[in-house]
Automatic annotation (TrEMBL):
MF-aspect GO terms: hydrolase activity, acting on ester bonds
Protein name: Uncharacterized protein
Organism: Dioscorea zingiberensis
Family: Belongs to the 'GDSL' lipolytic enzyme family.
Lineage, uppermost ranks: Eukaryota, Viridiplantae, Streptophyta, Embryophyta, Tracheophyta
InterPro entries hit by this protein: GDSL, GDSL_lipolytic_enzyme, SGNH_hydro_sf
Length: 212
């Protein structure tokens, strides 16, 4: 989930011209809350590309989303007039034109703590940043330098992660618990989060919405 203020802000927006989206693209980093199917493309048990997932989609077809239907990133992209569903960057069926309006790099099971992603064999936050850099290169090839820079700088960047670190990495394994109590582990997670945003802020972007 996004912060309450962010949710209210997005929910208060109204689209008067469906051909004029409020932002050119939505770009997402995070965990299962906003993973539309990236985990389908990697070797991990953290998948949901099977029934009953996808129950609310046409044909009851699972997409890899950890949900019966749309996930928050889909609702954000739709509300902003960008597109109805925000695709996974690693989707094998992704078309070059899909890159123009944004993608999600999120991976179910990821966390700010690199160990969280390692335990689940999913895409870490640092690796999501590497995919983002790759995406920028593809975008420049497809759209040209000027248009790509406009998409990147004016696109909405959403970060939704952190729900797996303490419950999974800290409580379900002894790997961190033997070295940290809860306050010190929380501080460790915050330090990893700070590092992530320190890197992200030096990459071109305009708006960033963070889950808390």
């Amino acid at each position: 989930m996004l912060t309450q203020d962010a949710c209210w802000s997005i929910n208060s927006l109204s689209i008067t011209d469906e051909n004029a989206p409020l932002v050119p693209a939505v770009i997402v980093f995070g965990d299962s809350i906003v993973d539309p199917g990236n985990n389908n493309a990697i070797k991990t048990i953290a998948k949901c590309n099977f029934p009953p997932y996808g129950l609310d989609f046409a044909g009851h077809k699972p997409t890899g989303r950890f949900c019966n239907g749309k996930i928050p990133s889909d609702f954000i992209a739709s509300k902003l007039g960008v597109k109805g569903l925000l695709p996974a960057y690693l989707d094998a069926n992704l078309e070059p034109q899909d890159l123009l309006t944004g993608v999600s790099f999120a991976s179910g099971g990821a966390g700010y703590d690199p160990l969280t992603s390692k335990i689940s064999h999913v895409i870490s936050m640092n690796d999501q940043l590497e995919l983002y850099k790759e995406y920028q290169g593809k975008l420049r090839t497809i759209a040209g330098e000027r248009r790509a820079e406009n998409i990147i700088s004016k696109g909405l960047h959403v970060v939704c992660v952190g729900s797996d670190d303490i419950p999974n990495t800290y409580f379900l394994t002894p790997l961190r618990k033997t070295h940290y109590d809860i306050p010190s582990y929380a501080n460790l997670v915050v330090s990893y989060a700070s590092s992530f945003f320190e890197i992200l802020r030096f990459l071109p972007k305009d708006a960033v919405v963070q889950e808390s």
